[in-house]
Structure formats: structure tokens, C-alpha cells
Design a protein that fits this description.
Length: 421
């Protein structure tokens, strides 16, 4: 890998790492502090449900972000659009860090929180598709899976930074200090990370695939109309393929953290440490699955990992419900390993499903529609399921999500050897 391709790989990775850090610190804050700070006049169960609903707002916004940034990404280029998406996410996240609490301004506080959470969703909706295209459209022949892996490494690294920051705060502050002001620090720190990401992204050149397409064809006037008119099938299948990734991740992290601390009585710093261990397995699975996708194809990897995820749902009750830190850590590690295995091939597969003229719009929209189906309400639904049926029902939710993605993998065509045109 020469300097130029190394820089491209790093640029596709660093942006997603920063944006997912921004996204995940909110998920962790939801599990720990958002309910009491912004919805104090209710019992703890209602606080948790309200907080999980604000968590879902960003997933509703993400397809709109994908369509907005996808439109300009397909018309004026990948580079400018990626810079804009990073700015939107960074500003929204930093402002959450300075929001007044409900006690200070009443209902205005949760309203502003919802608006900024929507802004986070818009920014992330435009981020992933552009980062994946940046990697895929620069990738050498036969290595799109490997290059498409770099934006997929952003989520586990961003999550490690997010968990690490809250872990440091949990160890350095008592509960009152953390709730009063400590939780705001990771949000404010985002501003520094965004400056780093912008510096890297502004140094980029346009991808050769897009530059060539602009020379030979005029950009599509309305990529969205073109997408829904001629590419509906890959859009739907791409979204369904993403369902298992999202369900695995957010039930394993956001829901499990909330359940482990509130129901099992595990100390928050200890559970965060367990999640740090588990997310390393997600990071390990990512390059392994990417290499396997280049060698054997995207579909076989997704089918095997999806079937394993389906079976893993049956382990939730006996392992997470055991209360044993060791068994819980093994379960979390298994689930996030499978998340990495199902997630890594998507960095190449989703861009391969669409032509250059609508690739940004198509890949980003499929990715984020999958977020609505698999993640937006996953912690909320899991919370309701565990209240009415216990952890085995939540495990069933994971199995159903995996089954949906396995069916989609059976229906999608293999894309490994296709040229990006």
C-alpha cells in the first residue's frame, strides 16, 4: 500500500471513527444519565423508555441524511460531501454537551435534545456511504473487501474511545458529579476530534471512479428518483442485510449495559470494562471477514455469520441472565464478534450493488434504512420484551433480526468480481 492509498484508507477510517464516537457516546449516555437529566419527573422505568426513544430519533434521521448528502455526493463529488457530513455531526454532538437540563429550562431541554439528536442522525447518515465509497472507489482490483474494511473499523474504534471516556469519568467522579456535569465532557471533546477529521478530509482528492464518471457522463439530476425507479431491489436487500448488524450491536451494548447495571447490579465501571473487552473482538472480526469476503465472496461470509448470529440469540438468557461477569463478557464478546463478521463485508458489498451515478445515495440509504429496521427501536423494544417476557424474548429478537438478514443474503447476487462503473 503506497502513501496515497494509505492516506485514503486512513481518511475513510478516521471520519467514521469520529462520527461513531459521537454517536456512541449518546448511546452510552442514554443507558446511564439521559433519563434522569432530561426526563426527571417520572419513575426510572419510564425515564429509561423515554431516553431510549430519543436514542431512536437519530436512526429515523439517518436515511434523510443519506438522501441529502447522497444527492450532492452523486452530483458534485465525494470529498466536499464528506467534509459537510462531519461538520454537521460534530456541531450537533458538541451542542448536546452544553444543553441545559430539564430542571433548568423545563420541556425545552428534551425538545432541544431531540433536535440535536436528529442532527446527529443527519450527519451520520451522510458519513458512512461517503466513507465506504472513498475506500471502494480507490481500492485496487481484488481488494475492495479489504479497503472497504477501513470505514468498518471506525465503529469499534469509535466505541472504544466512547466507552474509554465514560470509564475514566466513572472511575474519577462520583455519581452526583457525573450526573451534574461529568457526562458532558465526552460530548465537548468531540470538537477536537472533528478538527482532526476535517484536516485529514480536506487533503483528499476526488475518487478516480467518480472523476472518470463525470468526464464521460453528466451527473443524474435526481439520484433519488433514479434510485427508486431502477434500483429498488438492491436498495431493499441492502437494507435487510444490515438489520442483523444493528440489532447485534445495540442490544449488546446499549440494552445490555442498562440491564446489567440496573437489573443485575453490576457496577457501571465494571460493565463498561467488559464492553471494552468485547468490542476488541468486533475489531478482530472485521479484517478477518473482509479478507474472507475478498477470497470467498461476500454472500458466503454473510450467510455463515448470519446463521451463527441466529443461534446466538438462544444464549442470551443463560449467559447474560447468569449474572456472572465472566459468562456475560464471553456472551458480549461473541455477539460483537458476530457483529463485526456481518458488518465488515458491507463496506464493499453495498457500494458494489449500485452504479456510480447513484452509488452514494444508494449505499448510504440502504445502510441507514437498515438502521431504522435493526437499531432505532432495538433498545426500546428489548426493554419492553424483558419486562413482559424476560431475556429469552430479547434473544428471540436477535434471532429474528438475523433470520431476516440471512434471507436477504440468499436473495442478493454475489458482487465480489463486479467492476465499479
Amino acid at each position: 500500500m503506497n502513501f496515497s492509498t494509505t492516506r485514503i484508507a486512513f481518511a475513510s477510517f478516521i471520519g467514521t471513527a469520529i462520527e461513531f464516537y459521537d454517536f456512541y457516546i449518546y448511546g452510552l449516555a442514554v443507558a446511564m444519565v439521559i433519563g434522569p437529566v432530561f426526563f426527571p419527573n417520572s419513575d426510572p422505568a419510564v425515564q429509561a423508555l423515554n431516553a431510549f426513544l430519543t436514542f431512536g430519533i437519530a436512526f429515523i434521521a439517518r436515511p434523510f441524511g443519506a438522501l441529502l448528502f447522497g444527492h450532492f455526493g452523486d452530483r458534485i463529488g465525494r470529498k466536499t460531501t464528506l467534509v459537510a457530513s462531519l461538520l454537521v455531526m460534530g456541531v450537533s454532538t458538541t451542542l448536546i454537551g452544553v444543553l441545559p437540563s430539564y430542571e433548568m429550562v423545563g420541556w425545552t431541554a428534551p425538545l432541544l435534545l431531540c433536535l440535536l439528536r436528529f442532527g446527529q442522525g443527519i450527519g451520520l447518515g451522510g458519513e458512512w456511504g461517503g466513507a465506504a465509497l472513498l475506500a471502494a472507489e480507490y481500492a485496487p482490483k481484488g481488494k475492495r473487501g479489504w479497503f472497504g474494511m477501513f470505514p468498518q473499523l471506525g465503529p469499534p474504534v469509535g466505541f472504544l474511545f466512547a466507552v474509554g471516556s465514560f470509564l475514566l469519568l466513572a472511575n474519577g467522579l462520583d455519581d452526583a458529579e457525573f450526573r451534574a456535569w461529568g457526562w458532558r465532557i465526552p460530548f465537548l471533546a468531540s470538537a477536537v476530534l472533528v478538527v482532526v477529521g476535517l484536516y485529514v478530509r480536506l487533503k483528499l482528492a476526488e475518487t478516480p471512479v467518480f472523476a472518470q464518471a463525470i468526464k464521460t457522463h453528466k451527473p443524474v439530476k435526481l439520484p433519488l428518483a433514479e434510485l427508486f425507479t431502477h434500483h429498488t431491489k438492491p436498495l431493499i436487500l441492502g437494507a435487510l442485510l444490515m438489520v442483523v448488524c444493528y440489532a447485534l450491536f445495540y442490544i449488546t451494548t446499549v440494552f445490555s449495559l442498562s440491564y446489567g447495571v440496573s437489573k443485575l447490579g453490576i457496577a457501571r465501571p465494571q460493565f463498561l470494562g467488559m464492553l471494552c473487552v468485547a468490542v476488541i473482538f468486533m475489531a478482530l472480526a472485521t479484517p478477518l471477514a473482509a479478507m474472507a469476503g475478498d477470497r470467498f465472496g461476500r454472500r458466503p461470509v454473510l450467510l455463515i455469520a448470519g446463521c451463527a448470529a441466529l443461534l446466538s440469540g438462544f444464549l442470551m438468557q443463560p449467559m447474560l441472565g447468569s449474572g456472572s461477569p465472566l459468562l456475560i463478557t464471553i456472551f458480549l464478546s461473541l455477539e460483537l464478534f458476530l457483529m463485526g463478521a456481518t458488518f465488515a463485508p458491507m463496506g464493499a458489498l453495498l457500494p458494489e450493488l449500485f452504479p456510480t451515478s447513484v452509488r452514494y445515495t444508494g449505499a448510504g440509504t440502504a445502510y441507514n434504512l437498515g438502521g431504522i429496521l435493526g437499531a432505532s427501536l432495538a433498545p426500546y423494544i428489548a426493554q419492553r420484551l424483558v419486562e413482559h417476557g424476560g431475556l429469552s424474548w430479547v434473544g428471540g429478537y436477535i434471532s429474528v433480526a438475523a433470520a431476516i438478514s440471512v434471507v436477504a443474503a440468499l436473495l442478493v447476487h454475489e458482487t465480489r468480481d463486479e467492476e465499479l462503473i
